[in-house]
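Archive entry. Fields below.
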Amino acid sequence: MIVNLADYRRQAQRALPTFVFDYVDGGADDERTLMNNRAAFDRWQFVAPMLKDASVRSLAVQLGDTALAAPFLIAPTGYNGMLRYRADQMLAQAAEHAGITYIQSTVSTAALEEIPCSRTGARWFQLYVLKDRQVTVDLLRRVKEMGCTNLVVSVDAVHFGNRERDKRHYRKPMKLSLASYLNVARHPGWVLRTLVPGGMPGFGNLKPYLPPQYRRGVGGATYFAQQMDDSLNWQTLAWIRSLWQGALYVKGILTVEDAKAALALGADGLMLSNHGGRQLDGSVCPLTVLPEIRRACGSTARILIDSGIRRGTDVVKALALGANAVLVGRPMLYAVAAEGEAGVAQAITLLTQEIDRTLAQLGCCSLAELGPHLLCRCEN
Ligand SMILES: Cc1cc2nc3c(=O)[nH]c(=O)nc-3n(C[C@H](O)[C@H](O)[C@H](O)COP(=O)(O)O)c2cc1C
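PREDICTED_STRUCTURE:
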């Protein structure tokens, strides 16, 4: 029975071979950041005023050209085709029907052209910058052609995190261990849902750029790992800003200095993120730095956060501490793995109901009424 997002995690764990579940669920090194991302939310507790009429409520929020029915977006995640055939399309469709937004990753399984343009909302794309600048130029051309108006440049995955839970399933890079193959054999449902309809998933957006030797199987992953531009810097970001006329968000910011620099360079918004604990282990949690970054950047800066959001109360805490909206990563992936598009739709509904209930219990009719006065920081 599904009553909250954690139930989808349990269901996904049953539905997926362990190597796929660990790819999604795992973090870097000792997974301290992964754990702390949750603890950061527990450190804040609500101080709820009573006897306030909050019988009529709205969760709507506007981010530039994007109207959201509830204050969250589905975070960009790569290689979703491992969870289920057409998982990217399912995430996008469920988001569209719920009036929220799905951010498509550079390394999504579906190509940009395989996801229908949004009928109601604005479309978002997340960019990883590759060494071959012509690839970035061409990707941006396709992004624009496909009607995307919001670009998210991720800057925190230039050097890949050390994901040990992931590594243990491989005898060498991209070659599963015998134990993992046996484990796959114990998940025939996953094979039927994922591999039988479409074969081994690839990287739809990168296909046109893959040299012949990388076109088979998961060769795209090898190409991508080699092509990630590890010299990425502020000049590169300025170059992207000059190429892209739409709204630009920088994802992976965690310091006041970087936040100010990104805005000074012309970014329209920031995404405070530690990549869900998948990159630098021991990294600070976005929620912890959110209040000082909001103070430093002023009330008009557009600031989103992610990493560790699992409950409506988490979303409300982030908004009360200064976020305009949040991104939700893994829970939506567990939901699509467990129940496909219907699962994502249900996960969005559950989270929306939790946000709405929290708002009501805090005596607030709208998100604009949220603020730090509704929280106290406790160390226990
Ligand atoms: C399986 C997986 C794949 C991801 N792929 C990407 C990606 O392609 N681009 C990106 O910017 N972030 C990626 N992320 C990070 C998410 O966008 C987001 O920052 C993170 O999942 C938020 O943390 P949460 O999962 O705890 O909600 C990925 C995360 C996961 C779990």
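CURATOR_NOTE: The longest strand covers residues 148-154.
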